[in-house]
Design a protein that fits this description.
By secondary structure, the chain is α/β, with parallel strands linked by helices. It contains 11 helices and 14 strands. It binds adenosine-5'-triphosphate (ATP) and magnesium ion (MG).
Length: about 325
């Protein structure tokens, strides 16, 4: 059974520019996407900034009306049956709003359970379970203002689950968290999955999608450019090796020059303060090194290594360029 079905979903934003002669500018944020998510599946929607992830989640959570296409949650249309969809879903958007900082975590959950009309008897049992599930046991009586960002984010998840929704939407849940906070949040998400929730998670971290999701849809400029299991996505770059060249100050024309070479599939550049690392995808493997070094003649080079492609490389190949 599918918990979520998305069919040719589209959203165009109209914005006006100029004051005197107002012109209407159209932005196609989501450009006819289709996918299904099975019941109990943890599904990742992955893409760079501005790809259309939040817009998609907003349409699926009934906060935004689609310009075209359709979507349903548990068989209910997100537009026509919006009233019926809402009690069956929970969502969190990255960020800090929506909690009362002067109250404890526990009191926040009590307050919101009343607001959501959760039966008091049910809430009494469910709240401690949720606190446990998101890893806040022992800290629940402390005020939220003293929580770390990661703890607040996990409390958000508990809040979104108070009415026991079957389907959960998490829009960049690890945004702004340090590596440890992010890791704790990811383990909270995995706990949810064992509670048999269907989860749609957005992220722009490939490794995060890889660690959590059963399937991943990669979205770029409003379109789905790939949809598969992490393993299958990795196989799309099996024929390539990645050559990494450390360079101290790289003029842009060199990036262009390297990407024009016939044995080069893709070039990305990672910036680290004074130095850059050029990631070159090539089927030639280490044989390509002398040819590449020759092209970079005159630049100050550091380490040069060849390695196997990762899922991150598959992502770079799909959406192109350096982020
Ligand atoms: N209210 C709005 N009015 C006009 N354009 C918008 C609006 N909201 C989003 N957009 C545009 O729609 C496109 C998709 O935005 P969206 O927020 O869905 O992307 P995203 O994938 O969530 O990005 P991010 O990773 O930065 O959160 C972008 O080009 C964005 O500028
Ligand atoms: Mg977003």
């Amino acid at each position: 059974m599918n918990a979520i079905e998305v069919n040719q979903l589209r959203r165009v934003y109209k914005t006006t520019i100029g004051v005197v002669r107002r012109k209407v500018k159209e932005v196609v944020a989501v450009d006819g996407i289709s996918f299904d998510i099975r019941e109990g599946e943890l599904f990742g929607l992955l893409g760079p900034n501005g790809a259309g992830k939040t817009t998609t989640v907003k349409m699926l959570t009934t906060l935004l009306i689609p310009t075209g296409g359709s979507a349903s949650i548990l068989g209910l249309d997100v537009v026509k049956d919006a009233e019926k969809v809402r009690p069956r879903i929970g969502f969190i958007y990255g960020g800090d709003r929506g909690l009362y900082w002067r109250l404890s975590g526990l009191d926040n959950l009590r307050y919101f359970s009343t607001l959501y009309y959760v039966d008091p008897g049910v809430a009494k049992k469910r709240i401690p379970e949720l606190i446990e599930m998101v890893g806040l046991t022992g800290r629940e009586k402390e005020k939220v203002e003293g929580y770390s960002r990661g703890m607040r984010q996990r409390l958000h998840i508990a809040r979104a689950l108070l009415h026991d929704p079957q389907v959960l939407f998490l829009d960049e849940p690890t945004m702004g968290l340090d590596p440890i906070g992010a890791r704790e949040l990811r383990s909270a998400v995995l706990n949810l999955q064992s509670a048999n929730k269907t989860i749609l998670l957005t992220t722009h971290y490939m490794f995060e999608a890889d660690a959590l999701c059963q399937r991943i849809a990669v979205i770029d400029q409003g379109k789905i450019v790939a949809l598969d299991t992490p393993e299958k996505l990795k196989q799309t770059v099996n024929d390539l090796s990645v050559v990494e060249i450390e360079i101290f100050g790289i003029p842009p024309e060199y990036i262009e020059k390297i990407s024009q070479l016939d044995f080069v599939d893709n070039v990305a550049v990672e910036n680290h303060d004074q130095r850059q690392v050029m990631l070159i995808h090539t089927p030639k493997g280490s044989e390509a090194i002398p040819l590449l070094v020759e092209q970079l003649n005159g630049l100050k080079l550091g380490k040069v290594v060849t390695r196997e492609p990762t899922l991150e490389d598959a992502y770079v190949r799909l959406v192109g360029g350096a982020e």
